[in-house]
Write a structure and sequence with these properties.
The protein is mainly alpha-helical and about 150 residues long. About 55% of the residues lie in helices and about 5% in strands. It has 7 helices and 3 strands; from the N terminus they run H-E-E-H-E-H-H-H-H-H.
Length: about 150
């Protein structure tokens, strides 16, 4: 049986990135190593494998992601308090709520308020990863409120 070999420069270039097969119906990716496996190298040559940062659609995906989170949605303050109580841990609920109320009334930080509300709505719909985005929106609101504008 013949040993699988590639030219040194080709193998070295492939080693610099992580290669993946396309995602399945659950969104899971399968790791490939075209520098060591002949099956993976054939898939690489056919264009099936994608590098880790798939740059083909990343700008479009980021634009879509931002549009989804930046939609202007205002909610009553009591409803905002219930959102904060469900997502944020007990130690930070009061300060997070006050920060979001202040961001709601500030023209520079209102985008962080929108991010929190929209991320919570997606989180409540069942996508658990958006819970972290809710927390990051509160941090972003704090940063935007601290900045001095000249």
């Amino acid at each position: 049986m013949k040993h699988f070999r590639l030219p040194r420069k080709t193998k070295k270039a492939m080693k610099k990135t992580m290669w993946f097969y396309p995602a399945d119906e659950n969104g899971n990716l399968l790791l490939a190593d075209p520098g060591k496996s002949p099956e993976d190298y054939i898939a690489y040559k056919q264009g099936v494998l994608r590098p880790l940062p798939d740059k083909r659609n990343s700008r479009a995906r980021m634009r879509e992601f931002r549009e989804k989170l930046n939609k202007a949605v205002y909610i009553p303050d009591e409803e905002l308090r219930s959102y904060v109580n469900k997502v944020i841990i007990k130690d930070f609920q009061v300060s997070s709520y006050n920060t979001l109320i202040e961001a709601k009334n500030n023209k520079h930080a209102v985008i962080a308020y929108f991010n929190f509300v929209n991320a919570y709505n997606i989180y409540a719909a069942g996508n658990d990863s958006y819970g972290n985005i809710c927390c990051m929106a509160v941090d972003r609101a704090k940063d935007l409120l601290k900045r001095r504008r000249k």
